[in-house]
Amino acid sequence: MKKLINPIANFDEKVLLGVGLFFLGISICLSPVLGFKMSSIMHVGLTEVTFNNAAFSISKSVTLGVIIYYAAALIINKRTRFIDILNSVLIALVPLFLVSTLMSIPWTQHTFSNLSKNDSVSIFGMFFLFFISLTILPLLAYYFVLLFNGFKTATNLKEWYHVALFVVVSAGIAAFTPYIF
Amino acid sequence: MKLPVVCPSCDSELKVSQMKCSSCDTLISGSFDLPVLLRLNKEEQDFILNFFLSSGSIKEMARQADLSYPTMRNKMDDLIEKVTKIQTS
């Protein structure tokens, strides 16, 4: 269990890279099918998207995220390796892709749409939403845990101001990278 | 057997005050500082020894300990910082 909380600290970088790229590939393929688009590594939206668009937006998001985190990592520790930051971002995205998949399920979208229009939702729909929420929230928390733990291990982060830098950089990525390109 | 390096009463660094020859019982008294490497705890000394026995390969150490390279690298960096502090103090 401990190994899953911080895979960067426990698994070989080639294995992590393989797993990360595998899930990235699956997400690029599933994105046009299920209808979700990643505009940054902190933002996934539900929208119609073509395969080329999906490949571009996911690749752009990951590339920008990795470059920005790597620049921040070099400020903290000049010996940080690029592959460790790349693996931290790729592995952290796995739960985010699962969240996107769950949110893209037609039944989920239909139930949310009914709720937002103040239409009636069946008991089964409410239970389904409850189950989805119980699954999505821990997955989102796990995403942040993987991202932070991976960054912490890659940079040997120790001081409180290093953590603050990570938070500021993450907020910057969330706020600005969706509007780049 | 563990070699104590800090005082169990006040946590100050211990010094060597007497050494004995095991073949002729000659006693040497004085006040000698422990070598830098002996001022580390057993785990840290074992880590440095493993590093030496792995021909200086952090990757090999990581493979043997079933940990990743960055984890070993971080331990190495922390130990380097500690040894540097001991040398300068």
SSE inventory with pairings:
The complex is a heterodimer of chains A (181) and B (89).
Chain A: H1 2-5, H2 7-10, H3 13-34, E1 36-40, E2 43-46, H4 51-76, H5 82-104, H6 106-116, H7 123-155, H8 160-176
Antiparallel strand pairs in A: 1-2
Helix pairs in contact in A: 3-4, 3-5, 4-5, 4-8, 5-7, 6-7
Chain B: E1 16-20, E2 27-32, H1 42-53, H2 58-65, H3 69-88
Antiparallel strand pairs in B: 1-2
Q: How would you describe this structure to a colleague?
A:
The complex is a heterodimer of chains A (181) and B (89). Chain A contains eight helices and two strands. Chain A is globular and about 55 Å long. Chain A is 77% helix and 5% strand. In chain A, strand 1 (36-40) and strand 2 (43-46) form a beta hairpin. At the A-B interface, helix 2 of A face helix 3 of B.
In short:
The complex is a heterodimer of chains A (181) and B (89). With 181 residues, chain A is mainly alpha-helical.
Q: What is the chain-wise order of helices and strands of chain B?
A: EEHHH
By secondary-structure content and strand pairing, the structural class of chain A works out as mainly alpha
**Alpha-carbon distance between the two ends of chain B:** 27 Å
Instruction: Report the strand count of chain B.
Output: 2
Order of helices and strands of chain A: HHHEEHHHHH
Question: What portion of residues of chain B belong to β-strands?
Answer: 5-15%
Task: List segments of chain A where confidence is low: pLDDT < 50 over at least 5 consecutive residues.
Answer: none
User: What integer is the average pLDDT of chain B?
Assistant: 89
What structural category arises from helix and sheet content of chain B? alpha+beta
Widest sheet: strand ordering of chain A? 1-2
**DSSP summary: helix tally of chain B:** 3
Number of helical stretches of at least 4 residues of chain A: 8
